[in-house]
Amino acid sequence: MSSDLVITSMDPGKNMGGSKAKLDIINFLEEIGYTSYIVNPYVSKLKKLYLAEFAIPKDFKGTRYNNVIIQFPIPSEKLTKKLIKVIRENSPEAKIVFWIHDIQGLQSTDEEVTERELAIFELADELIVHNQVMMGWLKNRGYSKKMVNLEIFDYANPQPVNDNEIYQQSLCFAGNLFKSEFLRKLQLEHTIDVFGPNMFTDAPDCINYRGQYSPEELPKYLIQNFGLIWDGPSVDTCTGTFGEYMRFNNPHKTSLYISSGLPIIIWKEAALAEFVQRNKIGIAIEKVSDIDKALASLSQTEYNEMKKNTLAIAQKLRTGHYTKAVVQKI
């Protein structure tokens, strides 16, 4: 009897915040009949050799699968190739799909890194990618197999949705603050509530630091009117490794905000800006200083419309709509 499988790597030493997206995908796929296989590549060379040569072949011996989704990357090229090899040997009719979380080649200037990654992508039958921009980049780099557009990551949110429609021109930002260098340079008339680890001591007056919470607890405190999506060291545009990456990826915090009921303020050149504008769930800005004018010029009626649209998508994210829809297309 054939079945469907999702394969995921987990780092047991990290907090679960970094694994939230992967865990949500596992849980939503299990709701539609997938089984889950976890691999831990964060081990010694000897243990990795044991996994590759003994444990993985033993676990897959005699199995039959229709679809196998591998949450990419598994941070071990050796284990990734071994998993594909044993699946092909035991279940040659299975379709192997990489569900892309991150593409290192989009964050590195080392062409060798990009070439190695593209070679691994060729081992799969299909890719699930973040958005049309990421799809276009892969096509330009020569990837010619089928790709499916996720649109946005789902987000299982255990907290009640923030359905407060009173517009107070309030704003929040959540993230790992060590890489959010632009916050140090903020000069806003509006106050911004900031959440996350590694808060710096020399914060501008417009920042109201609200502490650090788990991914499950944080939405309880997201009671503002908007969530900000911005990255990198500059307030004028999104630059640097993290800022430039926004041109291609779907930041998971966007899903955190929307699933919590918050419309979005996002850099207009971010890949996800198209989704935000098409669904009328927020505002696209050119530079951070545009925030004051954007908040001040928005009417209560206009905000109500954004809020209504956001709550509709929040319900989709909370129930795994985009996960289940994309799997129907592979």
Automatic annotation (TrEMBL):
Record's keyword annotation contains Transferase: yes
Gene3D superfamilies: Glycogen Phosphorylase B (3.40.50.2000)
UniProt domain Glucosyltransferase 3-like C-terminal: residue ranges: 171-329
Domain Glucosyltransferase 3-like N-terminal positions: 6-152
Source organism phylogeny: Bacteria, Bacillati, Bacillota, Bacilli, Lactobacillales
Gene Ontology terms, MF aspect: transferase activity
Pfam families documented for this protein: Gtf3_C, Gtf3_N
The protein, known as: Beta-1,6-galactofuranosyltransferase
Keywords: Transferase
Source domain of life: Bacteria
